[in-house]
Each structure stands twice: as C-alpha cells, then as structure tokens.
C-alpha cells in the first residue's frame, strides 16, 4: 500500500502524470449496461497489450534458438539422408555447369579489370561453399557480368583517388571482404526482409544500364581498339569507339564470328527443341554448352595461328600466360585508407549482389516447388564473398544463366556444386596452357552475347506502362543516368524516386466516403438460369444471400455507376482509408473529412457573438452560409473503416483528437459519435482508447442517454454447436431496448441489420429461449468496455444509424 501511494505521489505530484486521465471520458457503467443487454451471455473485457508482453514475444524461445542454429546449416538436414540415386544427377549437372562456368569466369574477370584466372578463383569459392549454407539446389554462385563490372568501376574509382597506390587485386579483395562481412551480418541477424524495401523498377533500370555499359566497354576489345578509355561514361566510350572505327584490327573478325556463332547455335537449338520436343533436353544441353564450344573453337584457331609465335608478335590479342593452381591465394590485409576509399561504393555493390541472388533463388524455388530462405541465402552469399579473397577471388553472386543451365541439367541437390568445383580445379591445374591462346575478342563476344539477354525488351516497357506509368518514367530516368553518369547514381536516384512515389501515394491518396447498397448473388446451375425473367423480382425479395455492401458514393472505383448507392442515414458518414493512416497523410484525410462533412451538414446551433467583431476574421458568418442549408441534416456520427490500417502513430492520434474536438464544436451541444470497424491491431485499439475513442463520451450526458448499447456475441469453445433461435450464422447482434414501440423496434431492426446472416434481438421485446442453449455457451466477441470498436463495417454502420435515429426521434 505504501509503495502504491509513493508511486502515485511521484507520478502525479512530481512528474505531473495523471494515469487515470485516459478514463475521464469513459462512462463508468459500461460493463453494467453490457450485462443487462447480453445476459445470459458472458461479458468480455478487452485486455490491453503491455510492454512486457511485447518484449516477451520478441524473446527467443528454446525451440526458436534451436531452429536458428539448425537453419544456419541447411545441409545438415539433407546430407544424412542423401540417396545414391541422386548422385548421377548431381555429377552430371555439376560437370555440365563446370564446363559452362569456365569460359564465363575467364571472360567476366576482364570486366573486373583482372586477369582471367581471378574469375576461376571466384567461381571455385562459390561452388565449394554454397552447398553448406544455401537453400536452393538450382543456383550457381560465381562471377557475373554486372558484379564484375561493378568491381571494375570500384577499381577505377580507387585508382583515380590514389593513383598507383593499390593494385587492382588489392581493391577487388577489399571490396569482397567488406561485402561479405556486411551480407553475413544481415543474414545472421535474419534481416533478409530489408531487401523488400528495394523496388523492382530501379533494379531493372540498373541492369539495363549496366548491360549497355558492359557492351560499350567490350566493343573496343571486340574491334581490337586498345587506345579507347573504357572507364569513362558509356556515351563517351560509344562516341570514341565510333571515331576509332578506321583503326579496327583483325580482332574484329574473331569477335564478330564468335557472336554470330553463339547466336546461331542458340537459335538453332531453340528451333530444334520446338521441332522435336521429345529430344528437348538434348538440344537444351547442347545450347547450354555453346560458349564452351565457341571458346574451344577459337582457341584452336588461335593456337594454329600463334603456335611458336612470341606473345608480343601475336596477330590478335590473346589472354597470355596464366599461373596454374591457386598461386594468388593468400591472407588479404587491406589497410584503413583503402577501406575508406571502397566504403562509398559498397552500398550499391551489396544491393545488386543481394537483389540478383535472391531474385534467382526465389525464381528457381517457384519453378521447382520448394521454399528458399532469403536470410539464409544472404548468409551463403556473405560467406562466399568473405572467403573469396582468401582463394584469390573477388565478389560473387548468383548467376542467372548458369543457374538456368544447372536446373535443366537434372540437378538433385546443392551437392552438385562440389563437382563443378572439381572441374574448375582441373581447369586451373591442367588447362592454363590452353587458356594462353584464348582470343580476347572471343571473350568480348561471349560477354556481349551473355548481356544481351539482360536488356529489358520493349514488351516489358509496354507492360510497365500498363501497370504503372510513373514507374516507367523512373525506369527511363534510371537508364539515362546509368548511360550518361554512373551506375551508382542510377541505382540511388532510382530507389530515391521510388520511395518518393510511395510517400506521395501514401500522403495524397484520398479516402472514400461510402454508401450502402444491397447485393444479391445469382447463380446459373448448368444451362438453366436460376432465376427466370418473370419470377426474378419475387425471388430477389426473398433472397437469403442478400447482403450489405459499401461502395464509394462518387462511384470512382470499378463498380457499376448505375448501381444505387445510398447514404446510410442523414448525418452519418462512412469513411474508408485507402492507403493506410499515418503521419504523412493524416492532415490530408482530416481536411477531406472536414470539407465533406461541413458541405453536407449544418451546424446544430448557430454561433452567437455579443459583438460582430468577436467573430473570427475568416468566418463569413450567416451571409457566407451555403444555400439550402436548412435542408441539410445535423452531423450525427462518423464511421471509420480501418480495414487498410494496421498501426497508428502519435501524429495520427493527435489529428483524430483535434478533428473530434472541431466536429464536436460544430455539432454542439450534441456530441459526434465515432465508430470504428475492422480495428484488429491490439496496440492500435489501445492507442485509440487512450485518446478517448471506442466508447460514448461521459462528458455529454444527453448524447450518452441517446446511446443504444449493442454487442456482437458468438458461441464459445464450451459449446460450439449452440445457436440462437432463427440464427443462421454467428455472430448475432444483441440490442438493448429503445423507447419506441415493440412493432417499430422489430421493423427498424430489420432495416438496420440488413443481413440475413445476423439476428437482432431486442432484449425486452424478443425473448431468447433458455432451452435452446446452455447459459454459459455464448460470449461477447470484443470487449464490452469498447462498444464503438465493431467487428465489421455492417455492425458499425448499424450502430451509428441506430443512435442517430434515436437522437432524431428525441428531437
């Protein structure tokens, strides 16, 4: 007792906090009125959520901790039950993807401004580690065109900031280490949901811009133009390339021949797949190996041309010497200055790595009917990038082309990655002599062929236009910035514009004022119409499936504008939030509500001033009142549909309180009733109740006296089979007695409920038979201490109309 007194003294006297202030508007007899209304059904008082309950939900359970650590190594769940029958599929798929990855890795390393061997190191690390941490059997982690391009641009950025201080390898290793650490952090803390904040359109624009950039950098290599500075913006590279066309070398013959051959093999195989569907897998397999075949062909040509010829005297540019094995494997140790130089480029690189990888993983999961964990995929991606520099590699992510080949090759488990790693090891130790003769123009042709598929086709742009024209504009801006500025600016501006569009839609989307219409369902069984033309009218009058629907009064939606939508009752307004309710749009919603309400109602009593000068300067007075104002109703109630609202912030609550005070002053001496439908979040209900919503105000006794209590009840777990007499579906709506006659009450109840699914029971005029159910078998669905929080919009509107009609009868 003493501790409670001391606590009260500290909060009330010292801190000035009145913990009971929130209950100042609440009538003290709510539970008593509910008991008189719904007896013999049980009462239910709403239990408010607490901070301790919130933290208790966040605290991990023992089972949750066990599942977390078990989820870090998904391989532990399937390796013990690995079937030998899966082995053939994994070996075949692994070897196939190894043959596909080798030429890609060699080519993409050139985009990163590194020697081809670094691409093999990178792909090896991803193949070795992914099966341990990954949740997809169809994904291949390795070098990609976009990721390699980003590495090359980071290297150029560091070189321009500190010329000659750091080698390309050091910069690439530092970027991979930092990317891996960041991704591993997000994955371990299960923050994969954050990637949902990155919209699709900026990524699509970035990929298209990156594809254009890649092609612009590879065309000079294709043509043998070594003097072109490919580090400049793409448009400058394109212009300089066009100027240097007269200096084209023999490399162009190799490059263009490789591109033509690659496209020819792809198209011929695609045609044969359609022509001979029974051999579709064979032709798909041949198509997937086209890059390997083309590289081998032109390597053979190069060998025949350059065998015995010194490297300096080669007829066209070739790769040159590659050290066998993992001679670049070491312990990376970037200094602080290098990390600072790389840091500004890290967000864009990490975003693209994650988006590209997760998109592929989810796509494969949908295609082959299994579930991937985004957070665990980020763990796998982070681990691969963190350990890649130790093997001599750079940043890696999921490769869509290689993953598509892997899935078509009959892979059974993620273990196929180990077999592709064996192919890479074989290439590093046994084929480096062959790699010496690979023409760089052929590698450039391979890159151009690969990235052509990344360009957004016109049909996609047309789809964007159909789906959302503003986002198509964002896409165009992103591509333009990528071509004329840089990829980093493109991704940042694209995401920024998408967020701005989202905020604009949140802040400026109008809510809808709703009216009521009666809907009936008509079903055609077989070839015979359920309702004949002659009997349709009589049938509709007794159609038990008829129900209330609420449609916008202005018909600015997809509903038929010829449908008769009526206002629920003069002075009662139904308002539905369209895009949630938060601090960005609360003022806009408040203005919309006030404007509409005051245009369609009149003041309950005129304002009187002793002097005309006491009137506010912006109040026009009686001369400025709207015409035909006497024909308008008084404001009675506001019904808010919270079906699109989950959480509320303080700005929203304060805005609702200010709006309530303003409308109460407009309706004075009466009080406006505020009814809420579909408020399902307990914290939102608590916030509204703390602000004085959810129950009639005790500060206006006249309004409180006009209130007709009504509650929705349903069967409890004690007896699910019980039904009230005549009730066809739960819940039932139980009403308190009114001052009108029994017959008028019954007819009014039918008009107000407007639903055959509910039963309106007048507690004194219609009796519930005790023998139909046990005394403890029914209970209130929601707390009876907050009767203005309704189960649905029908219930809320019926309650508001009932009270408004009761007020009008009294007047």
TrEMBL record:
<feature type="transmembrane region" description="Helical">
    <location>
        <begin position="415"/>
        <end position="438"/>
    </location>
</feature>
<feature type="compositionally biased region" description="Basic and acidic residues">
    <location>
        <begin position="604"/>
        <end position="617"/>
    </location>
</feature>
<feature type="transmembrane region" description="Helical">
    <location>
        <begin position="282"/>
        <end position="305"/>
    </location>
</feature>
<feature type="region of interest" description="Disordered">
    <location>
        <begin position="724"/>
        <end position="756"/>
    </location>
</feature>
<feature type="compositionally biased region" description="Basic and acidic residues">
    <location>
        <begin position="724"/>
        <end position="733"/>
    </location>
</feature>
<dbReference type="Pfam" id="PF00916">
    <property type="entry name" value="Sulfate_transp"/>
</dbReference>
<feature type="transmembrane region" description="Helical">
    <location>
        <begin position="139"/>
        <end position="156"/>
    </location>
</feature>
<feature type="transmembrane region" description="Helical">
    <location>
        <begin position="82"/>
        <end position="102"/>
    </location>
</feature>
<keyword id="KW-0472">Membrane</keyword>
<dbReference type="InterPro" id="IPR002645">
    <property type="entry name" value="STAS_dom"/>
</dbReference>
<dbReference type="InterPro" id="IPR036513">
    <property type="entry name" value="STAS_dom_sf"/>
</dbReference>
<dbReference type="InterPro" id="IPR001902">
    <property type="entry name" value="SLC26A/SulP_fam"/>
</dbReference>
<keyword id="KW-1133">Transmembrane helix</keyword>
<feature type="transmembrane region" description="Helical">
    <location>
        <begin position="108"/>
        <end position="132"/>
    </location>
</feature>
<dbReference type="GO" id="GO:0008271">
    <property type="term" value="F:secondary active sulfate transmembrane transporter activity"/>
</dbReference>
<feature type="transmembrane region" description="Helical">
    <location>
        <begin position="472"/>
        <end position="504"/>
    </location>
</feature>
<feature type="transmembrane region" description="Helical">
    <location>
        <begin position="171"/>
        <end position="191"/>
    </location>
</feature>
<dbReference type="GO" id="GO:0016020">
    <property type="term" value="C:membrane"/>
</dbReference>
<dbReference type="InterPro" id="IPR011547">
    <property type="entry name" value="SLC26A/SulP_dom"/>
</dbReference>
<feature type="transmembrane region" description="Helical">
    <location>
        <begin position="341"/>
        <end position="360"/>
    </location>
</feature>
<feature type="region of interest" description="Disordered">
    <location>
        <begin position="604"/>
        <end position="628"/>
    </location>
</feature>
<feature type="domain" description="STAS">
    <location>
        <begin position="570"/>
        <end position="693"/>
    </location>
</feature>
<dbReference type="InterPro" id="IPR018045">
    <property type="entry name" value="S04_transporter_CS"/>
</dbReference>
<protein>
    <recommendedName>
        <fullName>STAS domain-containing protein</fullName>
    </recommendedName>
</protein>
<feature type="transmembrane region" description="Helical">
    <location>
        <begin position="252"/>
        <end position="270"/>
    </location>
</feature>
<feature type="transmembrane region" description="Helical">
    <location>
        <begin position="203"/>
        <end position="225"/>
    </location>
</feature>
<keyword id="KW-0812">Transmembrane</keyword>
<feature type="compositionally biased region" description="Low complexity">
    <location>
        <begin position="741"/>
        <end position="756"/>
    </location>
</feature>
